[in-house]
């Protein structure tokens, strides 16, 4: 009985081993692809790697760098916001520059007030004082002349009645009074003439210099508010409130490099693809007037035709796409720009890499 049990268990184990070996040796059915790989739609098409960007008449994106340095105090828009030319985007700390501009403004206003004062001369009150001084000098001269006349008459009647010293003092007093009258009259003429033309010209130059200094400071103050240079969409903002920025841009803690403070692009109704054609394939490319291309979205079955816009007639290093050089040789590419309409179901964004096939000769 025991032998039968052992035989049965051995047979069952052998059967299970055979079944396991069969199951393990059977090849699993391949899973269907998540998407069909991009197929060349042309008989002699040229493959190129492309990057989607805003549709610009020239250039790639609108990279905004601040012209001044300082910490960001306020971010006024968000990424993806539609802005108009001149709209404020963010503000940089302007406290020091604002104080400088206000100081120069006050100095310019003071110089303007002094210039107006010079042009308004003579002041009526000053002219009245000068006229009164002339009248006083005339009266003093009249008194000195009367005293001298009395002394001379007395001396002519009886020379011993007036000493020579008293007579000389009377004559000197008359001369001094006459000189004082002459000074008073000239001072009146000077006061009546108003400010000297050279003083006015000098003050005008002072006012002009301070006005321009204030205008310069105000223009620099305006640069602490970053504004949209044109209509478009805010694609990327590289810094937050409190971050320090400079004319080199904003520090990117991920790439450890300096990036534009703000990247803007054109509205999304139309986008463009910058396709990079390898330099060894440039000769095979069709005539630009007859050039056609098709774009394939990576990770999907979506593809669409492209319209040729222009080519950038400068063969540049391939590192434009990655900012890294990994090739052992200098591989260069020719940028060719195509345009396409951004439909609602396409769901693509600037900066996205795509596959492009371009027609060949």
**How are the strands of the largest sheet arranged?**
1-12-16-14-13-17
Report the mean per-residue pLDDT as an integer: 86
CATH topology of the largest domain: Elongation Factor Tu (Ef-tu), domain 3
* Number of discrete domains: 4
Q: So, CATH architecture of the largest domain?
A: Beta Barrel
CATH homologous superfamily name of the largest domain? Efflux pump adaptor protein, beta barrel domain
Task: Note the beta-strand portion.
Answer: 15-25%
Q: Over the alpha carbons, how many angstroms does the gyration radius reach? A: 47 Å
CATH class group of the largest domain: Mainly Beta
Order of helices and strands: HEEEEEHHHHEEEEEEEEEEEE
Number of continuous helical runs: 5
Low-pLDDT stretches are: none
Topology overview:
Layout: H1 2-25, E1 46-54, E2 62-64, E3 70-75, E4 82-83, E5 88-92, H2 95-120, H3 124-157, H4 164-193, H5 197-222, E6 225-227, E7 232-237, E8 244-246, E9 249-252, E10 257-259, E11 262-265, E12 270-278, E13 293-296, E14 303-311, E15 316-317, E16 332-341, E17 353-358
Antiparallel strand pairs: 1-12, 1-17, 2-11, 3-5, 3-8, 4-7, 5-6, 7-11, 8-9, 9-10, 12-16, 13-14, 13-17, 14-16, 15-16
